[in-house]
Design a protein that fits this description.
heterodimer; A: about 110 residues; mainly beta; 5-stranded mixed sheet; 9 strands; B: about 120 residues; 7-stranded mixed sheet; 4-stranded antiparallel sheet; about 55% strand
């Protein structure tokens, strides 16, 4: 399994764009990059997934460079409700279970 | 997506007792469910994979006789913590995935277990 490294914590203010970068130097050809969000005392929630280049949905954007050794989750104009832990996961589609890293604790302030 | 529920949402028990946690897939039939444990300020740790109609697959270091998993139907998996001790106090979360979804899992709301 590709190991992921992401910042332990980040701080931001409401209305700002937040970019969380995840390193996965040992990513394999069949691996996809997936991001989850977890609020306190709740189960994680899928945010976005990608293989290469850029993926955008109604919640976030995911930027993946050509070498795929890192990825950046971009949250546009964050609000207080975006305060959560964000997990970057790398796994191939054949794996049925997910392995969570330490995650990034994002704190959004007024 | 899939909707997953858990019951109870929290439970407090005395040391030495057993506690059963239910995980239900509400809107589709889940042949596989996953059980995770999360200690405060830590990440999720996979405990076991629950397979409908067969034995669960446990991760290394997880005692199968202590954490009994039953997946008797396509919509229900149960985790029983037997002879619970204070160190078993944790947040237990189940999840499932649609066969067609690549790494998109749907998680339950979690169960907070406190063993006194």
């Amino acid at each position: 399994l590709a190991k992921t490294t992401q910042p332990i914590s980040m701080d931001s203010y409401e209305g700002q764009e937040v970019n969380i970068t995840c390193s996965h130097n040992n990513i394999a050809t069949n691996d996809y990059i997936t991001w989850y969000q977890q609020f306190p005392s709740q189960g994680p929630r899928f945010i976005i997934q990608g293989y290469k280049t850029k993926v955008t949905n109604e919640v976030a954007s995911l930027f993946i460079p050509a070498d795929r050794k890192s990825s950046t989750l971009s949250l546009p104009r964050v609000s207080l409700s975006d305060t959560a832990v964000y997990y970057c996961l790398v796994a191939d589609t054949g794996r049925r279970a997910l392995t969570f890293g330490s995650g990034t604790r994002l704190q959004v302030q007024p | 997506g899939a909707v997953v529920s858990q019951h109870p949402s929290w439970v407090i028990c005395k040391s030495g007792t057993s506690v059963k946690i239910e995980c239900r897939s509400l809107d589709f039939q889940a042949t596989t469910m996953f059980w995770y444990r999360q200690f405060p300020k830590q990440s999720l740790m996979l405990m076991a994979t629950s397979n409908e109609g067969s034995k669960a697959t446990y991760e290394q270091g997880v005692e199968k006789d202590k954490f009994l998993i039953n997946h008797a139907s396509l919509t229900l998996s149960t985790l029983t913590v037997t002879s619970a001790h204070p160190e078993d106090s944790s947040f237990y979360i189940c999840s499932t995935r649609l066969p067609s979804s690549y790494n998109e899992q749907f998680f339950g709301p979690g169960t907070r277990l406190t063993v006194l």
